[in-house]
Amino acid sequence: MLQSKLFTKTKREAPKDEMSKNAELLTRGGFVYKEMAGVYSYLPLGYRVLTKINNIIREGMDAIGGQELFLSALQDKNLWEQTNRWSDDIVDIWFKTKLKNNSEAGLGFTHEEPLTRIMKDHISSYKDLPIFVYQIQTKFRNEIRARSGLIRGREFLMKDLYSFCKDKKEQEKFYEKAKNAYTKIFERLGLGDKTYITFASGGSFSKYSHEFQTEMPDGEDEIYLCSGCKKVAVNKDIWEGQKKCPECGNSSYTEKKSVEVGNIFNLGTKFSESIGLFYKDKNGEQRPVVMGSYGIGPGRVMGTIVETFCDEKGIIWPESVAPFSVHLLIIGDDKKTKENANNLYKELEKKGIEVLYDERDVSAGQKFADSDLIGIPNRVVVSEKTVKENKFEFKKRNEDKSVLLDRDELFKKLR
RNA sequence: CGGGAUGUGGUGUAACGGCUAACAUUCCUGUUUUGGGAACAGGCGAUUCCGGGUUCGAAUCCCGGCAUCCCGACCA
Question: Domain A3-311 falls in which CATH fold?
Answer without folding.
Answer: BirA Bifunctional Protein; domain 2 (3.30.930)
